[in-house]
Amino acid sequence: MSRPRKYAMVIDTRRCVACSACVYACKAENEVPEGYCRDWVVQLVEGSFPDLTLTNRSERCQHCESAPCVANCPTGASYHPGDGTVQIDRDLCTGCKACLAACPYDARYIHPEGYADKCSFCQHRLKEGLQPACVTVCPTQALTLVDLNANDGAFERLTAGREVQRDKVHLGTDPKLFWLT
Amino acid sequence: MTEIISNKLNPNVLPHLDIWTWDVALYLFLGGLSGGLLILTSGKLLLQSGGLLHPKAPPRDPGLSLQVAALLAPVLLGLGMLFLFLDLELKLHVWRFYTNFNPTSPMSWGSWMLLGFFPLSGLQALIVCRSWFSSVPLLQRLADQAMPYRNALAVANVHLGAGIGVYTGILLSTFYARPLWSSSVLGFVFLFSGLSSAAAVLTLLSSEEERLGHAQLMAYAMAMEGFALTMYLVGGLTSTGSSRSAMWELVAGGHAPWFWLLDVVGGLLVPLLLITLIALRKVTYAPLVPILTLLGSLSLRFLIVGAGQAISTIS
User: Fold this and answer.
1) For B31-51, how does the pLDDT look when each residue is reduced to its tens digit (9 = 90+)?
2) SS3 readout for A139-179
3) Residue B71: which residues within 8 A CB-CB, separation 6 or more?
4) Given B20, B177, B309, which is nearest A68 (Cβ)?
C-alpha cells in the first residue's frame, strides 16, 4: 500500500528574482479578487551599506502539519485532507474568522463572497496530476512542490548543501514551506 | 538595518488584523455579564433555599432584583449572540456550528455550551419569576414541574455561568498568534469582570436594603478582577519577546491612556474607592458607581479585542 502524500514547497531564494509571476498566475488560476492575494513576494534587505544582502521570498499558506487554523475552526471547514495540505470547505465555512485570528503567518483573508480563503497548493490541479500554477509559471524554477513521503530523494537533492529556513518553527506548527538561502 | 518590501494585499489582514470589531466586543461583554448574572442569581437562590443537600421551601418572594437579574441572564446572552451572528460573514451558514464538534476549538465548545445555557437559565428564570406568568398555564405547569429540582438546577447554572464567563476569555487566549490574547489568565480576567458587571446590574436593580450588600459583592468581584488583571500583565511582561512587547504596548504604548484611564482608574479603582466610602458612610450611594463598573467592563472588552489585533502577530 502506498503511503499518503505529504506535499511541501521548496523555494529557492537564490533563484527567485521577485518578478511576482507566481502572484499573478495564482490570481488568474484561482480567480482571486482584485485587492487580495493568496501568495505574495517579500524582499528582505539586511545589513549596512555597502554590505547589504537582498533575499527574495515567495510566500503563501504554510500548510502546517499542526495547523492552528484547523484546530480553531468550529465547523470543520478548515481541514487536513490527508495529503499534507490544509484546505477549506466553503460550504462549511461560516465566515467567523477564527482561522484568520489563529494563523501566525497571516496567510488567510475573507473572500468578498464571505468565506475564508488562502493558498490551496492548487488542489484542483494536483488532483489532475498537474503542478500548482505558481510552480508552473515561475521563470527561474525557484518553486518546487515536493512530496515528503515519496521517498524519491527530490527534497534531499534540492536541499543538499543549502541552508534551509522555515518560518516560526518554534510555534510548533510544523510549517511546510522550505526556503533555501 | 532590515527593510522589508512586500506586495501582499488583503484588507483586514494588513497593515494589521482587523477582523473583529464592536459586535464581537459587545458579545464578549454581554456573554460575561450573562454568565456573571447566572452565577450570582443561582448562588443567591441556593442561599435562600438551603443549598443542594438541605433544601427548604423557597421564599414566597425572591425579590424584584433577583427576578429581573434571573430573567436578564438569558435575555442579554441572546442579545450578545445576535451581535455575534451579525459578525458572521456567511450568516446563512450559522447552523454549521451544530453539524460539527471540534474539541480543540473554544468557539465550538462555546456554541454547544450556549445550547445548554438558554434552557437551563430560562427554566430558572421561569421558576423565579413564576408569579409574573400566572396568566400562562403552560409556563405555570412547567415551573411547577421544575420546582422540585430548583436547587440542582441552580448548582448546574452556577457552573454553566462560570463556564460561559471563562469561555469569553479562553476564546481569545487560544489564538497564540496574537501575543496580547495568548494568556490563559484572560479567562479569569473576563470571568471576574463579568461577575463585577453582574453585581453592578444587581446593585442598580436593588432596593435600598439590598444595595450595600450588592455593592460589596461588586467590590469583591472587582478586587478579584484587579488581581487577575495584575497576573495577566505580569505574565505578559515576563514572557517571550512578542508577549513582552505586546504587553508594553498595552501599558505604555498607544493603548495605555485608554487602559489606565477607562479600565483601571475609571472602571476599577474609582468604583472600589467609592464603595469603600459608601460602606464607611462617608458618601451617599449614587448610580454612578455601578455605571462606572459597567463602563469599565465594557471598555476592557473593546480594548482587548482591538489592541489584540492591532499589535503585531507573534514573531
Assistant:
1) 999 999 999 999 999 888 877
2) CCCCEEEEECCCCCCHHHHHHCCCCEECCCHHHCCCCCEEE
3) B125, B128, B129
4) B177
Helix (H, G, I), strand (E, B) or coil at A88: strand
pLDDT band at B237 (very low <50, low <70, confident <90, very high): very high
Which of B9, B95, B109 would you mutate first to test chain A, the one with the most A CBs within 10 A? B9
Q: Within an 8 Å CB–CB cutoff, is residue B7 touching chain A?
A: yes
Q: Inspect the interface and report whether the beta carbons of A74 and B111 lie closer than 8 Å.
A: yes
Q: How many CB atoms lie within 10 A of CB B260?
A: 15
**Which residues of chain B have a CB within 8 Å of the CB of A101?**
17, 19-20, 175, 177-178, 309
Provide the β-strand partners of residue A7.
A147
CA Rg, chain A, in Å?
16
What single DSSP character describes residue A130? P
Cβ within 8 Å, pair A74-B313: no
Q: Which residue among B7, B17, B100 sits closest to A76, beta carbon to beta carbon?
A: B100
CA angle B263, B264, B266 (to 5 degrees): 70
Q: What is the pLDDT of residues B62-101, one digit of tens each?
A: 889 999 999 999 999 999 999 999 999 999 999 999 999 9
CA atoms of A20 and B123, how far apart (whole Å): 60
Q: Which residues of A touch B6 (CB under 8 A)?
A: 40-43
Q: pLDDT of A83-112, one tens digit each?
A: 999 999 999 999 999 999 999 999 999 999
Tell me the CA distances in angstroms from B72 to B35, B118, B201, one per residue in order: 10, 11, 10
Strands A87-88 and A109-110: unpaired
Q: B163-191 pLDDT, tens per residue?
A: 999 999 999 999 999 999 999 999 999 99
Q: Which residues of B touch A94 (CB under 8 A)?
A: 88-90, 93-94, 96-97
pTM: 0.94
Vertex B312 angle, CA B309 and B315, to 5°: 130
Written as nine digits, the cell of A70 is 484547523
